[in-house]
Write a structure and sequence with these properties.
This protein is of the alpha/beta class. The protein contains 12 helices and 8 strands. The chain has an 8-stranded parallel beta barrel with strand order 1-2-3-4-5-6-7-8, surrounded by 7 helices. Helix 5 links the parallel strand 3 and strand 4. The protein starts with a helix and ends with a helix. The protein binds 3-methyl-2-oxobutanoic acid. 3-methyl-2-oxobutanoic acid (KIV) binds next to strand 6. The site of 3-methyl-2-oxobutanoic acid has 11 residues, from strand 6.
Length: 284
């Protein structure tokens, strides 16, 4: 069954937790889809975990479209949300609608995500009015890393908590279909979840949210440039990959690989004398 903005809202109503993971390519998306993930976020975190930037700021619309299209080819049932990269929606409302449209039309996403609260409500409404579902993102919004002075937990004092609550109410009113709450105190996330009709998807925001999202490289231990406290390692794929790479190097160097089972044979039972055959070429 295809997951949509409506089905994840229904999950909230029924108290069923929503599962979301990031993916950036066809095969990973296909694997996640095959085990029943509700939603895949093509996050601009791809700038860090796939492209090796130190933050998400250099990610372009072309990067996002390229990776979203690959994910969309792999995932048939997951609700696919594509991040709007830095400066693709801040400059003007019309630019935001145009870029959101490209992620749907060229990337085949089902929804777009953008960061911010009251300051981006006009964009949320305009994109929604263009029949594009919008997921909001509050708390530690990585595109504001320079304004925050680093990747820091947000909403820790009363003033910041009040701002976040007011932003959450504003984005829902503007038309957002869900909101990611990143790195905020878990009691604040639980409270916000209780006052919103739309689902909250937490990352570093505790289990009082309606769902969870993780960057898959973090939860599979494939990326250790930054190791956030909330990123539980559900499997050590990084180690398994390294073991595989090392075995390949070892066997290739020793000549053990490729063995008989990995090679092709000629039609004539391998009885061709290649030296004799090639001699025809060199006779004259
Ligand atoms: O870009 C991303 O992967 C995200 C998640 C961390 C929520 O926005």
């Amino acid at each position: 069954m295809k997951n949509t903005a409506a089905t994840i809202k229904e999950q909230k109503r029924k108290g069923e937790k929503i599962t979301m993971l990031t993916a950036y390519d066809y095969s990973t998306a296909k694997l996640m889809d095959s085990v029943g993930i509700n939603s895949i976020l093509v996050g601009d975190s791809l700038g860090m975990v796939m492209l090796g930037y130190e933050d998400t700021l250099s990610v372009t619309m072309e990067d996002m479209i390229h990776h979203t299209a690959a994910v969309a080819r792999g995932a048939k049932n997951a609700f696919i949300v594509a991040d709007m990269p830095f400066m693709s929606y801040q400059v003007s409302v019309s630019q935001a609608v145009e870029n959101a449209g490209r992620l749907i039309k060229e990337g085949r996403a089902n929804a777009v995500k953008l960061e911010g609260g009251a300051t981006v409500c006009e964009q949320i409404t305009a994109i929604t009015n263009a029949s594009i579902p919008v997921v909001a993102h509050l708390g530690l919004t990585p595109q504001s890393v320079n304004a925050f002075g680093g990747f820091k937990v947000q909403g820790k004092d009363e003033a910041a908590a009040l701002r976040l609550i007011s932003d959450a109410v504003a984005i829902q009113k503007a038309g957002a279909v869900a909101v990611v709450l990143e790195c905020i105190p878990y009691k604040l996330a639980t409270y916000v979840t209780s006052i919103l009709d739309i689902p909250t998807i937490g990352i570093g925001a505790g289990n009082g949210c309606d769902g969870q999202v993780l960057v898959y490289h973090d939860m599979l231990a494939m990326y250790d440039d930054i190791t956030p406290k909330f990123a539980k390692k559900f499997a050590n794929a990084g180690e398994v990959m390294k073991e595989g790479f090392m075995a390949y190097i070892r066997e290739t160097q020793s000549g053990e690989y490729p063995s008989a089972e990995h090679v092709f044979k000629a039609n004539t039972d391998d009885n061709i004398d290649y030296e004799k055959l090639a001699a025809q070429l060199f006779e004259n």
